[in-house]
Amino acid sequence: MPTEYPNLTVIAHPLIRHKLAVLRDRETSKKKFKELVDEIATLMAYEVTRDLPVHDVEIETPLERTTEQMIAGKKLTLVPILRAGLGMVDGVARLMPSVRVGHIGLYRDHETLEPVDYYFKIPKTPEERHFIVLDPMLATGGSASAAVSSLKKQGVARIQFVCLVAAPEGVARMLKDHPDVQVFTAALDRELNAQGYILPGLGDAGDRLFGTK
Ligand code: PRP
Ligand code: URA
After folding, report:
1. Are 85 and 139 in contact (CB under 8 A)?
2. C-alpha angle with apex 94: 93 to 96, nearest 5 degrees?
3. 3 state DSSP class of 98
4. Atom of ligand 1 nearest to the CA of 146
5. Quick check: pTM over 0.85?
6. 123 burial class (0-12, 13-18, 19+ CB within 10 angstroms)?
7. Between the chain's N and C termini, which has fewer beta carbons within 10 Å?
């Protein structure tokens, strides 16, 4: 769905909208929340990978030889931003089982809302890979922007960012800091509150996934 932001793609499929509605509900259990994040990530992965290059391959069917197409080009790497991004990994990897998974550890300081980094591990030769960064929430955009900057510092050139709920502030921050990175979201919400939470949002994604406060 086109938006006013050139860097934003909203994937508003009815299945995604339905599952997102249940995800937002404060009464949704931790178990159900985890299942829904996983399922929405799978559905979004279909759209996020739409433009991956393919190349011709020769295949012997039981009846004859034919030309088919397979994904070509740079190898894919998923990078969840810890912690909440972890909830999206299996959902995406289900469609691409050979994908590598890196990890970026960041948390938002509750006072300043600035990201604090504590872990970084990605596959060797990152410049040869295509990265998909995963985090359910794009709020101020500080965490997403810092994660993308860390990847670029390692020589990564091809990056997509996938979230479930985005705030306009976060999308604008990504457009300013990383206009080359397309942001995919299931919903573009209204605004941030004074504490940096997305409205209407779904609350604290990490806490709801892992049952902590
Ligand atoms: C949440 C979320 C993002 C970040 C978004 O993580 O998962 O990483 O906040 O906010 P921002 O766009 O303003 O940076 P949090 O800091 O709560 O860490 P956690 O996943 O470890 O709970
Ligand atoms: N992080 C979350 O988990 N939720 C928000 O609404 C904002 C940041």
Report:
1. no
2. 60
3. coil
4. 14
5. yes
6. middle
7. C
Q: For residues 11 and 27, give the distance between their C-alpha atoms in angstroms, rounded to a whole number.
A: 25
What domains appear along the chain, each with residue ranges and CATH number?
Answer: 8-50+74-210 (3.40.50.2020)
d(CA 100, CA 17): 29
| Atom 3 in ligand 2: residue holding the nearest Cα | 204
The DSSP code for 188 is E
Q: Which of 157, 132, 158 is nearest to 44 (CA)?
A: 132
DSSP letters along 7-33, please?
TEEE---HHHHHHHHHHH-TT--HHHH
Q: Measured from the CB, is residue 102 less than 6 Å from ligand 1? A: no
Tens of pLDDT, residue by residue over 36-91, are 999 999 999 999 999 999 999 999 999 999 999 999 877 899 999 999 999 999 99
**37, 143, 162, 195, best to mutate for ligand 1 pocket (most atoms within 8 Å of CB):** 143
Q: Name the phi and psi angles at 180, rounded to 5.
A: -80, -5
Is 177 a known active-site residue? no
Q: How far is the CA of 113 from the centre of ligand 1 (A)?
A: 9
